[in-house]
Structure formats: structure tokens, C-alpha cells
Amino acid sequence: MSNDDALERLTSWFQERLPSATDLRVENSSRVAFGHSAEMTTLTLAWRDGTEERREDLVLRLRPPFPGLLEPYDMARQFTILRALERTGVRGPAVLWLDATGEALGRPFYVMARVDGDVYETEIPAELDARPATIRRMTRALVEQLAAIHLVDLPATGLAALGDGRSYLDDQLDHWTAEMRRVQRGELPALERLLGELRERQPAPSERVTLVHGDPKPGNFAFVDGEVTGVFDWEMAGIGDPLADVGYLDLLWKTPGFFTSRPAALTADEAFAYYEELTGIPVRHREWYRAFQSFKTCVILLVGAALFEAGHSDDPRFGFMALGIRPYARRALRALGVDEDLPTGPVEPRPERFDEARARSADLAR
């Protein structure tokens, strides 16, 4: 489908949702090259309502082509979660419309309101680094939003219908093991050992079952003047053990490029003590939960590299994901008391595949 055809079909789709609108048009449409999962397009919807001119800034979140990085993608599930959160203290973007069929653009998507704020995914700009009090407030605000997610009243919002959540850790280990098996090209000694240690040492889960975001990295929060204005990327959200989210944030807290790594930020110990204060949920077994999230991260990186190797994506970022597997696995094994330096196995795409992707990109640029 050409860009012109997609724009025409999208405009018709919006018109069906706003039947009384006249002179409806899509303006300022721009693909957002950010992240590695669902595709996003920012746009402005303009129309006339009687004599009044109306404009609304929106974001369209489109399911990626199959196979994607985080299969299975369920856009209707994400839409349901975000719609339920509008009645809570969680600052998710307001969702407006859903196309679960994929008829309009060939793939399912939903439309949400654009959220004001800045996202700090890979670097900390100098102007922010010069405001240590703001950085410290940002880390507290991030913890407050994580707590808000875990304090959502599941029955009152209808989110209890998403599942019981008691077997969340087992289900997650089973899912990511299946994903690893699906794409592996040979023996993966480091990941196999890590999986075995996680199974053997698995602790009792948190006594509380909550909404779980699934990907609460600092780069999934937007900020204005130190306050969270938006929480994004709900692909992996579900009902389960809140300490899984804590473990993921704990794993990434000191990652260079995230504002949580700066000297002015709360330390991880301070952050999770604050989380306990806000939620009443004891933070336990941090080493295991960090290792658990390391395994999940390694498998996602493995899937990304496999997508590149198989030609499903020519984006070199997917190919280079494989380089992160060894350090994540090694650090997780050490945290679990395994000092043996095990090989990762065949995880990196072939050099020829990078050459092929570069050639395709050059052809498209001509």
C-alpha cells in the first residue's frame, strides 16, 4: 500500500468515527523512528464541527509486520488496558479508537492522544544534566508511577478479567523459553545454564498480584519539569507478580544513557525503599528477579537478531542486538553464583547478512 493510499484510507476511517465532521483531513503525518516494536506515526487530525475549526494531535500505534519482536501482539488487549487506566492514577496516554481487524491499513492499530513531555531513551541532554534536582525528582516520579501501576484496583477497572496472575513467573519462563527454542540456531550454553539456575532457584512470588507493565524502563516514561506525563509501551502488560517490574527496573537502573544512572538520581536501594513505602509490597530476592529479567532480555535480543538474520528486517539495530546477550547472561549468572564463563553459541547474524541489508538500503535510497 502506497503512502497516498494509506493516507486516503486512514482519512476515510477517521471520517467514519467522526461522521458529523466536515473537511476532515490528516496533517503533519510523520513516522516515529523510535523503539523496536510497534510502529508509531504522529499526526494532526483537523476538521470542522459546524462553524468551529477543530484540531487534535494524535499518535497511531500500528502492529508491526509479522513476525515481530514481541509476538504475539494484541492491539485490542493494549487498548483495553489503556482505556481502563484512564480512571486511575496511572498516566497512560488516553486512547481514542481501535481498528482490531486491520482492514484500514492492513494491520491492527489504535489511536491515542499525543502526550506532552520528553522521553530520555539513549542519552541525557546537557540541559537536563545541569539540573540535578530535576533528575532526582524524575527518579522519584518514575517510582511513583510504577507504584500507581501496581496499586490499580483490578476488579474496579475490569482488568481482573485479564487473568489470575498466580502462575505469572512460570508462565513467563515458559514463554521466553519457547521463544528461545523457536529461533535458536544451535546450542546456547550460557542461556541454557541461566534458565536452569532460574528454575532451580525460583523463589515464592510476591504475595500481591497486580497489574504488571512488563517493560518499565526509564525510556518508557515522558516527563515535563520532573513529573511523569506519560507511560508507554504496554505490549507486555498483564496480571502477575509486581516484583517482575521491580526486577527489570533494578536491572536497568545504572544503565548509561538513562537518567537513573546520574549522580543526582536516587540510588536503586533508595528507589525501592520508596516503592515499598508507597505500595506496602516488600522487595525481595532482587538478584533472582534481575537475573529473570536478564534472561527475558537476552531472549528478546536473540529474537531481534534472528529476525535480521532471516531477512524479516533490514534494520541493523536488530542485528546488533545479539551483542548484548553475552554481558546480560554473564552478569545474571554471576548474580546467581555461577562464575563459569560459558559461550553464548550462535547468536550473531552472519557478516554477509549485514552486507545484504546495507545493499538493500542503498538501493532504496537511490
UniProtKB/TrEMBL annotation:
Entry protein name: Phosphotransferase family protein
Domain Aminoglycoside phosphotransferase, first and last residues per copy: 47-270
Highest taxon, organism lineage: Bacteria
InterPro entries: ACAD10_11_N, AGP_Transferase, Aminoglycoside_PTrfase, Kinase-like_dom_sf
Positions of the UniProt region annotated as Disordered: 342-366
Matches recorded under CDD domains: ACAD10_11_N-like
Basic and acidic residues compositional bias, start-end: 349-366
Species classification: Bacteria, Bacillati, Actinomycetota, Actinomycetes, Frankiales
